[in-house]
Amino acid sequence: MNILVINSGSSSIKFQLINMKNRKVLAKGLVERIGLDGSKLKYYRGDSEKIEDVIEINDHEGGIDLIVKYLTSDLLGVIKDIKDIYAVGHRVVHAGEKFKSTVLIDETVMETLKECIPLAPLHNPANIIGIEATMRKLPGIPMAGIFDTAFHQTMPERAYIYPLPYDLYEKDKIRRYGFHGTSHFFVAKNGAKYIGKSMKELKIITCHLGNGSSVAAIEHGKSIDTSMGFTPLEGLMMGTRSGDVDPAIPLYLQRNKKMTFIDVDTLLNKKSGILGVSGISSDMRDIEEAVKKGNKRARLSLEIFTYRVKKYIGAYITAMNGADLIIFTAGIGENGPIEREMILKDMDFIGIKLDKKKNDKIFKGKKGIISANDSKIKVIVYPTNEELEIAEQTLEIIKNSKK
């Protein structure tokens, strides 16, 4: 059974076709610059080298059409025709409070996604366009929606309600939603299996650290808190996002610096974080190189980033009255032994002891235990795979719907 995973952006479509019998990626790629000059398709067939096709792509429907053309072509294809696609799983950013798990996409679901556009004005419209284009190009093939926010819908009110006038929650649904839910669930589930446990018997802290970063507290299989909030801006310092700051700062900037709403939004989301502090780059690899050369601001950005992750880990250990497992994942989490060491330094008093030799060996997609043998809280690195999780959930809901 082949599942096509689609992640549609405003001018791009990421895709993977996965054979669910062996969980093998048959093909994957990216359509980018849709509707712009220089639009192209990057296509990988299995483990083959990347193939690029620079071609005019006017809209998302044209992008899906090109993807299907490549997947079914005689020379580069991996399936004979679209009938070999069992189902399509769509990544969708925001479902508000409407959906707490994966759903089969129908007209009612589409209307609900449109209602959630005010909560994710940059992401949901693109997701909706991608779904509608795929439905037109692949008629009759069942489709599922998998939501970044769904996993965190188990948070208790004390974790997701902001201390604002309550009618802002009741009328406008302003609350903590959390994101990266598919990744947090995938690594919690599979990280627990890796150490021979079920996530339902553990207290787990998952650290998804990349250009976008978040931490989640997962108690017996349920998310009870997470660092991102009403938007992905809250929480940890990120590549270009500020994370937690005094909420009066935007007011100060508008009042005293005469900055507009758009100016402040751009500052907090695109010019802050690691880039803003370092003045060099949003990429942690560039920061590490600059630190080696003695750059003080690069060092400061690294220290702020790791310090803030440490604080959230400590807070979530307190919230759950302990922890059994900490998992690092995503670009920095999987490939940053320096960052992991700085985060876990001086935490032995609460039962976290790092094994430096083990830690230094884990990068480039490897998985493994990095805590010392006598560490009360086990720490592992486990690579995330959101596309596989989307495919897994799509397959499950389609099968269940046919029973």
Q: What's the number of helices?
A: 15
What's the CATH H-level superfamily name of the largest domain?
ATPase, nucleotide binding domain
Give helix and strand order, one letter per element, not per position: EEEEEHEEHHEHHHEEEHHHHHEHHHEEH
User: How many strand units?
Assistant: 14
Biggest sheet strand order reads 5-4-3-2-1-6-8-7
SSE-based structural type:
alpha/beta
Mean pLDDT: 94
* Secondary-structure arrangement, i.e. CATH architecture of the largest domain: 2-Layer Sandwich
CATH class of the largest domain: Alpha Beta
Total domain modules? 2
Beta-strand content estimate: 15-25%
Helix content: 25-40%
CATH fold-level name of the largest domain: Nucleotidyltransferase, domain 5
Shape field = globular
Sequence stretches where pLDDT stays below 50 over 5 or more residues: none
Give the biggest sheet. 8 strands, mixed
| N- to C-terminal distance | 17 Å
Give the radius of gyration. 22 Å
Describe the fold and architecture.
The protein has 2 domains: about 1-145, Nucleotidyltransferase, domain 5 (2-Layer Sandwich); about 195-385, ATPase, nucleotide binding domain (Nucleotidyltransferase, domain 5, 2-Layer Sandwich), CATH 3.30.420.40. Helix 1 (about 60-70) crosses helix 3 and helix 11 packs across helix 13 (about 335-345). By secondary structure, it is of the alpha/beta class. It has helices spanning about 60-70, 105-115, 125-135, 155-160, 165-170, 180-195, 250-255, 260-270, 275-280, 285-290, 295-320, 330-335, 335-345, 355-360, 385-400; strands spanning about 1-10, 10-20, 25-30, 40-45, 50-55, 85-90, 105, 145, 205-210, 215-220, 220-225, 325-330, 370, 380. The mean pLDDT is about 95. The protein is globular, with a radius of gyration of 22 Å. An 8-stranded mixed β-sheet has the order 5-4-3-2-1-6-8-7, sandwiched between helices. Strands 11-10-9-12-14-13 form a 6-stranded mixed β-sheet, sandwiched between helices. The chain contains 15 helices and 14 strands.
